[in-house]
Amino acid sequence: MNTFTNGTPASGIAGARWVKATASDALNECVELARVNESEVAVRNSRFPDGPALVFTRSEFTAFLDGATRGEFNNMTV
Widest CA span of the chain, in angstroms? Predict the structure, then answer.
């Protein structure tokens, strides 16, 4: 199993299938996600597709999604 560290160039994650939310704006500015192996998810900025990726374990990302679903980060966009 390949493991990746934070800051790995997103373009260097071979076989990654990046997914963007359908709600991204007209300039395609969005966060994109890719499952990079059985236990990790990578996140990149769609404006910089070759830039660094942040890599999270499945449990870390699940905790983030739970918090987002509960509205814990809503103040970040105000």
Answer: 40
Rg of the chain over all Cα atoms, to the nearest angstrom: 13
DSSP for 8-63 reads EEGGGSTT---EE-TT--TT---EEEEEEETTEEEEEETTSTTSEEEEEEHHHHHH
Q: Which two tokens stand for residue 19?
A: 């997914």
Higher-pLDDT residue of 60 and 27 is 60
- How confident is the model over 36-46, as pLDDT tens digits? 999 999 999 98
Pairing status of strand 31-37 against strand 19-20? antiparallel
Exposed / middle / buried, residue 55 (Cβ in 10 Å: 0-12, 13-18, 19+):
buried
Distance CA 73, CA 78 (A): 10
